[in-house]
Amino acid sequence: MEKRSVFKSTWLPILFAAPQLLLILLFFYWPVTAVLNWAFTLEPPFGGAAEFVGLDNFKEVFNDQLYWHSVMISIIFAICGPLTAIFIGLVLALAVDRELPGSGFFRFLYILPFAVAGPAGGMAFRFILSPERGLAAMLNEIQPDLWNPAKYGSHALAFVIIIFIWKWAGYTFIFLLAGLQSVPRSLIEAAAMDGSGPIRRAIDIQVPLLAPTLFFLLVTMMTEGFVGSDTFGMVHATTRGGPNHATELMVYRIVDEAFQGLNYSGASAQSLVLIGLIMIFTFIQFRFVERRVHYK
Amino acid sequence: MAQIDIRAVRKSYGKTQTLHGVDLIFPTGEFVVILGPSGCGKSTLLRMIAGLEEITAGEIAIGGTVVNKLEPRERGCAMVFQNYALYPHMSVADNIGYALKVSGVPKAERRRRVEETAAIVGLTDYLDRRPAALSGGQRQRVAMGRAMIREPKVFLFDEPLSNLDAKLRVSMRAEIRKLHQRLNATSVFVTHDQVEAMTLADRLVVMNKGRVEQVGQPLDIYHRPASTFVAAFIGSPAMNLIDSRVEGGAVRLGSAVIPLAPAFAGLEGRTVTVGIRPEQVRLAAPGTGLVAIADFVEELGAGRVVHAVMEGQPFAAAIGAEVRIAPGQPIAFDLPAEHLHLFDRETGRRIEIDGEPAQSRAAAATLAPALS
Ligand SMILES: Nc1ncnc2c1ncn2[C@@H]1O[C@H](COP(=O)(O)OP(=O)(O)OP(=O)(O)O)[C@@H](O)[C@H]1O
Ligand SMILES: [Mg+2]
């Protein structure tokens, strides 16, 4: 048994915890109560007390075709983005872990995008992937409109997914590299003696041992994809939900509706649905993926 | 046929050189033990044979093929690691069978061979377990099974027993030896435990600071250590090494004067180090031979070792359990001339004349009349 020290006084521990408690109350519980309140009430447009409307706000949200479209693309976004970001991070981490010449430099380079805020990255990509200039322009010369996110919804969605991947691959890379470096060197050597080449070793030994890290990244990245402030920022800085609502991710729609449309009630109802969706996904992950993760 | 030839092999990490030109030949089917203190470069040498460490200079050939540029898997070696390096996420069966899986052996045959191997190393009942659910000894066996299933030409062991308790170590030692006889592969076994080395080796390589000090059969090395390093390193308790000088055809050790055979006349005036093993020292009548002051006594059960001081130099002797010695008491020792070893004080190398050690000459001289 570990020995614990016990505070005799009641006030001292509360005093220590107070700043943190205050922050949580102020920035989490208070907004959450406000959201809960708004979701079930309606503010009269010209002032006065809010009116309780039961599930009306939700009914309205669910009856909106555009809302279901938003849910669909959010799910696509939160699956394609994180999976690809993790996959790219994994490949880069495996490469850097081999300690080939120059790996230190590349390690630095790969982490760098993570330090760039989502909107800034989005701005950069507006130029990088703009159909009129550079790389994409060359593509469009082969055939007009081969790449035009301003015109085609699917291109626009791919566009924001690419920015997400670009930003988060570096983050997954750090975690995966740290995970790889904690795999004992002798295991890799034993596999090499057993006749296994670098790729085979990665698949048979390194990736299975990384499973806990991969699982952690899957959960956090998908949550980020659904509600990350950077996800909002990326859309906001590039497509602004367009063209024709094609990139109107749930999180973007909520912020847009609340602060542009000033529809707090609708936005709050949508927030609650989004939280529910994240809970369902996280539950699925823990229920079906986590069991297969090998912790010891 | 898998003879291992190591020719002028060097290893440097950056500027620091850890192996300074090693030349060795390990004949096919021999059990070679590389022995040396920690940090002398044993593992480095072994890993260079395995292909896990680049060869800075020189050449290693296995079965006549130079392997410097070959990948580990192309060298036909199997290795047992000190920490076993078992794959934690695989069952015992998968661990043992991994090499076969990689080389594409069909499932049915793989299964058969895994079971066969498991039977040899006594793991039949544990095939479905994960390594975490095994004892140290069992893990050791998995590591051995994994190495032998490929029927390698060369078996490499890097201190495979050092994580086991003393008793298990003895029994695993016997098993490794049996395994070697059965597989008849060339085995290279690295250890810093001299008992392991003496009991296992057909051929013993003693290394020190990145150099080979001596190569030979274990008993040969024990009886004729090539340098003061080997003399002190092999044997427990360690050999007594005392600085002296050849004067008047004899060496003087404290109060004792031991005459050398006439063949050593050429050494007159040389500074030497004289060695004698504690177990070959005898108690003498008080006042004769070498006199030393007892410092402390080590109980070994079957006997005891008295550690004494003679003119400021430590001197140990194995004595029977029946003799009582108190610290501070002067003791007289008799040093049989036939058990003396002579080393050059400057170089630390053994002094031999015509390949015969000094003391055996002396012994031959004293024995000769008796035999004729
Ligand atoms: N990657 C490395 N970089 C620099 N020096 C190293 C490296 N690996 C080993 N060395 C050095 O090489 C020398 C020999 O190491 P080695 O592992 O071969 O020793 P050893 O004889 O096996 O010792 P032990 O009995 O402790 O295992 C040591 O002095 C060690 O510090
Ligand atoms: Mg070692």
From TrEMBL, chain A:
Subunit info here reads:
The complex is composed of two ATP-binding proteins (UgpC), two transmembrane proteins (UgpA and UgpE) and a solute-binding protein (UgpB).
Native organism: Xaviernesmea rhizosphaerae
Quote the SUPFAM superfamilies the UniProt record gives.
MetI-like
* UniProt protein name: sn-glycerol-3-phosphate transport system permease protein UgpA
User: Can you quote a single GO CC term?
Assistant: plasma membrane
Query: What topology does it adopt in the membrane?
Result: Multi-pass membrane protein
Tell me the Gene Ontology biological-process terms attached to this UniProt entry: transmembrane transport
Q: What UniProt keywords are attached to this protein's entry?
A: Cell inner membrane, Cell membrane, Membrane, Transmembrane, Transmembrane helix, Transport
* Cell compartment(s), UniProt: Cell inner membrane; Cell membrane
The role this protein plays is:
Part of the ABC transporter complex UgpBAEC involved in sn-glycerol-3-phosphate (G3P) import. Probably responsible for the translocation of the substrate across the membrane.
The organism's lineage is:
Bacteria, Pseudomonadati, Pseudomonadota, Alphaproteobacteria, Hyphomicrobiales
Question: What's this protein's family per the entry?
Answer: Belongs to the binding-protein-dependent transport system permease family.
Record-annotated membrane-spanning stretches:
12-32, 66-96, 108-129, 156-180, 201-222, 269-289
Q: Where is the ABC transmembrane type-1 domain?
A: 71-285
Question: Which Gene3D superfamilies does this one have?
Answer: MetI-like
From TrEMBL, chain B:
**ABC transporter domain: residues covered:** 4-234
Q: Which organism is it from?
A: Xaviernesmea rhizosphaerae
Membrane topology classification = Peripheral membrane protein
Q: Which GO terms describe its molecular function?
A: ABC-type transporter activity; ATP binding; ATP hydrolysis activity
Query: Matching Pfam families, A to Z?
Result: ABC_tran, OB_MalK
Query: Any idea what this protein is called?
Result: sn-glycerol-3-phosphate ABC transporter ATP-binding protein UgpC
Which keywords fit this entry according to its UniProt record? ATP-binding, Cell inner membrane, Cell membrane, Membrane, Nucleotide-binding, Sugar transport, Translocase, Transport
- Tell me where on the tree of life, at the top rank, the source sits: Bacteria
What compartments host this protein? Cell inner membrane
